[in-house]
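User: I'm new to structure prediction. If I give you an amino acid sequence, what do you actually give back? Let's try with this one:
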Amino acid sequence: MVNNSHNPDKSFIIYHQNTDGLKNKKDEPVSALLPTPPHILCLSEHHLKYNEIKQINIEGCKLVTSYCRQSVKKGGVCIYALNGLICSKIDMSNYCKDQDNEICMLKINFMSVRLHILVVCRAPTGDFNFFLNQLDDSIKSIYKTNLNLIICGDINIYYLLEHDTKKQLD
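Assistant: Good question. You get back a string of structure tokens that encode the predicted 3D arrangement of the chain. For your 170 residues, that looks like this:
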């Protein structure tokens, strides 16, 4: 269960989890974080279609934005926010392609700070160059000099060794 009391220190909590399927686990991401739920819950690999994700209710939260795969099974990303938080979806659908670049984004004002939060998922078999170009284009589409952007997700790039894809992303 999520209660809507926020941290007394006014911190803002964003949590990301790769769910590897959300349908039968909708209470797991939040219950693991109690007693202080996150303000924003970013999930990757929810494995749902649009009509299915609208049916998932996470107590105390609202679904703000999502991307669901159109032709390939599994994958997908979504962002939930605590009820009462004022936030809005930013349409990123033009930058999405199943397996290569699955993203969604929201905008929120918290304590006079405007944040953009982007969750991304790229399959290990996805086209890395397409991913990199679309991620770059999506960020450029909202860029302003005072932009506060938080990116989280599962990009399937191995960071323990030096290699070209890691360098390109960095």
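You can read the tokens as a compact description of the fold. Here is one thing that stands out. The first strand starts at residue 14 and ends at 18.
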